[in-house]
Amino acid sequence: MVFHMKPNYEAMNKAELRAYVLGHREDIEAIRLLFQVQDDIDIKKYPPVCTEEGIPIEKNINIMKKAIEDKIEQENNNK
Length: 79
What we know:
Shape: elongated
Number of strands: 0
Structural class: mainly alpha
Strand content: under 5%
Order of helices and strands: HHH
Largest sheet: none
Helix content: 40-55%
Number of helices: 3
Distance between the termini: 60 Å
Radius of gyration: 20 Å
């Protein structure tokens, strides 16, 4: 009988965890941890750009366009 010790995922940095997941694609726990959103990261969420039927929602598309334009302007100002 062979026992494998479970790695300490929390002790791994992102690069180490990514490398581990690439070699152990069946390890769902490691995959979940790799893609888990950290609490200290501010993520801006946007509304859907189309309905479930695939119909575009112009208002939401315009919100996304504005956000992209603002980000580009911000990046250009930081150069």
